[in-house]
Protein 1
Amino acid sequence: MKKAVILVLDSFGVGSAPDADKFGDSGANTFASIARAFANHKGRQLQLPNLARLGLVKAAFAASSEMACVTDNEPAVGAFGYARELSSGKDTPSGHWEIAGVPVLFEWGYFLNKQHSFPPELIDELCRRTGVPGILGNCHASGTDILVRLGDEHIRSGMPICYTSADSVFQVAAHESHFGLERLYQFCETARQLLDDYNIGRVIARPFLGDAPNNYARTGNRRDYSVLPPAPTVLDKLTAAGGTVVSIGKIADIYAHQGISKEVKANGLEALVDKTISEYHAAPDKSLIFTNLVDFDQNYGHRRDPIGYGEALEYFDSRLPELMAMLEPDSLMLLTADHGCDPTWIGTEHTREYVPVLCYGPQINAGSLGERASFADMGQTFAEYFALDALAYGQSFLTELTRTH
Ligand SMILES: O=P(O)(O)O[C@H]1O[C@H](CO)[C@@H](O)[C@H]1O
Ligand SMILES: [Mn+2]
Ligand SMILES: [Mn+2]
């Protein structure tokens, strides 16, 4: 049975990439920063014994020469390496598409102005088409800070809160009951149509609940409206060849619902891991179970919370033995990330980093996969694993995984 699992630990970078200076990110290191802050705060090391067994600490050290203070005194049982990103941006779609074999080599459109970020003609047309009396925000912001600042005014005025970041995004926060969830989704769909002309990668609906600035909280009903990947990904190739791709969490949104056979929603690390396991068992031969673990990025990386990030990593690590035990002899599991988001770095944005490439399967050959020149090496490996036509980018490392001992 050919069954594969990919888990993207969203934002779990392992050291600044060679081109990090272009992004102002030289020296960022999500993993090492979390481990350091965690040990300082808790007076004990971050405990990631199972990730360490897969080779995480060895891969991270090879990527950055910065020793993350996490115990690692056993030989690896996984194949481990680290990959750099070819794509021009350090955003979620670029990272995921490149993992699936399609780097984004063109430049996205960005709203660069920190204030008055959106062109007036865009706002006018959006208001005209949707009938809202205007928008709030119109700036770069952290999505939780802006609720504290503008949540009350939004409820009073009925104007949605529109904001952006260093990513190619147009985000819309609105109250689920006052503004309405369906109405927010419709507003975002209209924005999506208008933003194609601006080459913006994603529109994101950010619904929230609560009745005062100190309790406004975003709900699990976030929805992302992405443009299509610029070329067929390994997901498209697998489904076209009669295989099955099961999306767990945000994956389907990130790939604009292309090359996906089944969409399974879940909120929170525990539910996402639970669904990954149950969908793995239910999946037929020639299946890829593809999970995005967004909490690392959304709840801890962008929120600049290294302790919360460390605790979430420890939780994920505690579930790893179940994921490893479920795998059948021919199965392959990959853990990776789509970019960094160093929670000790200045600002609240992503950081340009190497990502870990950790592979495991009952029959794989443990050892180093070294530095990978593109995230696309992962997609190419899965293309070969499923006997699909080769992708345009990436060097498969399947031979290293399956070489006889
Ligand atoms: O601050 P929040 O709303 O979480 O925004 C973050 O989430 C967006 C999508 O990942 C990024 O562009 C970043 O700005
Ligand atoms: Mn991401
Ligand atoms: Mn993010």
Protein 2
Amino acid sequence: MKTVYFTDRSAVEQNALQSLLAFEEKPNIGSIAVFPDIHFCSERSIPVGVAFQTTEVFYPLVTGKDMGCGVAYLRIPRSEVLRPFDKARHYRALEREVHRMTEEGLGGGNHFLALEASADYLYIIVHTGSRNLGIYMYQQNCRLLQQHNPGQDWLPIERATPNYRHEYERVLGYAASRRREFVEKTYDFLRRNQYVAAGAPVFADSCHNLLEFAAGGVIHRKGSTQLLGESEVVIPLSMSRGSLIVKPNRWNRALEQALWSCAHGAGRQYSRTDTLKYWHSLKRAEKDAYRQRFAELLNRQGDFDSSILQEFDFAYKDSAALLATQPHLIRCDETRPIVTVKFTGV
Ligand SMILES: Nc1nc2c(ncn2[C@@H]2O[C@H](COP(=O)(O)O)[C@@H](O)[C@H]2O)c(=O)[nH]1
């Protein structure tokens, strides 16, 4: 079977399904894995939340400009946490520091840095990508297509020369190093402000927007997380729900069918415009509950900017089935958000 669904196929939105079916018909596409966070992407030919394999060709534009985008965590045992984060005292200071931590910031959209906690650990979680270097690589890819296969969206595999792959790896490496910088500097912030004691926190990183060039072909992951060895990965759910921490079950046959990938989030159920409509349909008491819970995100007028509203939990799909439909995953932990910083250096 060419396409394997790790989600209820009948629940996939129609426009996402249509673009997926059109893509499936192309002769040079091998197997496809579809994850629960699948959703329509207006920019390119295949929805987000999908991985697919090719052997003779590769699709350089399919992951968009933010190649290398992913999620990293720094995990701190509860025994090293000295006190709860004081939002009133330190939210703005943390936000300002996050702003200055790297040259290019977190970026817009869903990119975020959060402190999240489970029963046993405090996590610093960051979701960000390759920023301008990714845009540069995207433009290089457009030029390559124009030169070698005008009017098409694929290149013959021979065009993935050692130089090309080296350049591509440089972009992925840059995105990964930015994530590491964010979590390490946030750890410094927490140490300096006596929130955590010195220790040996554990770092884990994963990427969900990439082409993986291997001997047997190319795995394209468009908003689907790469599973490597037995490493843990974060599946962020939403600003109000937190995240799932999972790892691959290497004994489960589904892992190969999933192309060593999994969902990279809960996935949007409402477009950004529909999310705003939903917000305006809420009762005053419901809105006030959000205002109280996320008081640090209110603007000077005491309301949320629309960029924040578009990210609230109602924008995202229910995540209850995430593990049930992906049997190749082992649940390691589940977090609840403490504080989230969004949108820096847009
Ligand atoms: N823990 C948090 N998860 C979040 C937040 N905002 C979004 N999300 C989830 O991340 C995925 C990935 O987003 P994408 O832009 O790469 O598609 C998304 O599907 C949500 O489930 C947050 O603030 N905290």
